[in-house]
Amino acid sequence: MTDLVIVGAGLFGLTVAQQAAENGYSVRIIDKRPHIGGNAYSYFDKETGIEIHQYGAHLFHTSNERVWEYVNRFTGFTNYVHHVYTTHNGEVYPLPVNLGTINQFFHAHYTPDEAKALIEKQAGEYANIEPKNLNEQGIKLVGKPLYEAFTKNYTAKQWQTDPSQLPASIIRRLPVRFTYDNRYFKDKYEGLPTDGYTAWFERMIDDPKIEVTLGLDFFDSSQPLSKSRVRGNVPIVYTGPIDRYFDYELGALQWRTVDFKEHRYDEVNHLGCPVMNYSDADVPYTRSIEFKNFNPEREKTAVQKKTIVWDEYSRFASKGDEPYYPVNTDQDKAMFAQYKAMERAEPMTVFGGRLGGYAYYDMHQTINSALVTWEKEVEPMLRK
Ligand code: FAD
Ligand code: UDP
User: Fold this and answer.
1) Residue of 11, 39, 246, 315 to test ligand 1 pocket, by largest number of atoms within 8 Å of CB
2) Separation between Cα atoms, residue 153 and residue 158, nearest integer Å
3) Ligand 1 center from residue 354 Cα (angstroms)
4) pLDDT value for 211
5) Helix H segments across the chain?
6) What mean pLDDT do residues 158-181 have?
7) 249 SS3 class
8) Is the separation of the CB atoms in 4 and 382 below 8 Å?
């Protein structure tokens, strides 16, 4: 029927499909959504022509040479460099925390060394510990006053979980700089796909050996590529939630999801930047995204007197919601390890991606993981 069935047309599934087809295998991809690209999917708004990232702002960045070379086979990248600002107590500050943020916050003109010494002092007892969770890591990085101002309430809105229960790695995503450099990412390469995300993804699977069927749920046993019909007969790459695959036998892993509220303005620019965070508790959403500011090179959309802003609200996902961010408390980690052990009884299924791996992967990490999984697990399975 086919050499490989892939569940999920997100970046993990598309990368494995591309590698399989390039190596001569036939592939069937299914996705329950009506489009490819998973959470990185985007579309062009009919009224304004602005590219909208349907599941939230997606900025591509990587330091991985192999991934950079790989993605450039399918798309060019603009020279977009991500910058974020945050509103706190009626004032706007640059992020991630840098010398500009520090000097504005303390109404000071510290040099880099002076600022470093101040932050270390303000980190108090946390300055010299090996942080075990987000709370400790956050205070160690920026000291208590800046943590209270820029991290504490934003994190509370984003995760609704005690920060001493959250992994330190979440806050280490953001650099802290003792210069005025406020580039959000620290990677070597950065940019947005020149013709939009979806054009990039379409090129990845532009191969007669790949067939994509949208609107099919792997767990709908009435359809021919369902789990009940395919499992044990054809090799599978599964990129949906791992707990769902095992029918929540050990319980449900915790996820955060997000809701968006759209605003349309007859203005050339509304926020004046691509992303504005809100670090105080009285604003119920975490951040606002003004999509046209991701693509200033698109002349037509850049100058027109229309713009689209989305406010992002975070909440716990229940069954039926889109799972976005793995919460990864110690309890979640223990449950995930038990699900991983159950994979051993599934020799014809390879699990991967953000949902299958219960991992907070950025796109470049998803692609890297897919390339490695292809080499180490999927191709050997197909050769058998
Ligand atoms: P997904 O994109 O989630 O794709 C999985 C696919 O599987 C989905 O299309 C789903 O419909 C399908 N599926 C699930 N269950 C079934 C089923 N039962 N039957 C059929 N199909 C099924 N990364 C960055 O690099 N930069 C960013 O700025 C960035 N911003 C992000 C912002 C948000 C709000 C989120 C949530 C993620 C962000 N990411 C970002 C991460 C990026 O989205 C992921 O790394 C990447 O999309 C993961 O790809 P994936 O294939 O693993 O999963
Ligand atoms: N964060 C924060 N204040 C901010 C921005 C981020 O406290 O203004 C913390 C928060 O805990 C968040 C984490 O840093 O979950 C990572 O932020 P990032 O912008 O990388 O999150 P993402 O874009 O993945 O939602």
Assistant:
1) 39
2) 8
3) 6
4) 98
5) 11-22, 65-71, 99-105, 112-123, 134-146, 153-159, 169-172, 197-204, 227-230, 242-245, 299-303, 330-342, 353-356, 363-373, 379-383
6) 94
7) coil
8) yes
